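2024-03-11 09:14:02 DEBUG pipeline.ingest accepted 1 chain
2024-03-11 09:14:02 DEBUG pipeline.ingest length=141
2024-03-11 09:14:03 DEBUG pipeline.predict start
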Amino acid sequence: MQGTNRRLMFHGMCLFMLGLLTGFAEQHFANVRMGLAAHLEGLMNGIFLIALGSIWPSVRLSTVTTAIAFWTVLYGTYANWLITVLAAVFGTAALSPITGVGHSGQPWQESLVLAGFMSVGITIVIASALVLWGLRKGVSQ
């Protein structure tokens, strides 16, 4: 995957920009605290992708595993921001004990946000484990 590190950095800047723009809108969400969380998720996940792009040439995985790591990390970071934005718009409290206090959405909204956050958590753990595995000592260049 030639140029994958640049693609990760590009997506990092896109997500960072989405985080900045979310910050402008956070006062208009049903759950303002979750709006702030969405703003920060965009910024932090964008920075994470930029950092990952900078170390990506050092990650040693098979072609298939590299593709899995790349796509899972992109899904996890973008979906994290998007699900948090949806939670802010809906005013849900799913998996958000601090930012969700005093808020609740429709049952289908709570279920959607819960499923989204669960998928993001699982995906990011898998992606991080793959990258960590690809950075282990003793792997040939």
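2024-03-11 09:14:41 DEBUG pipeline.report The chain has one domain: 4-134.
2024-03-11 09:14:41 DEBUG pipeline.predict end
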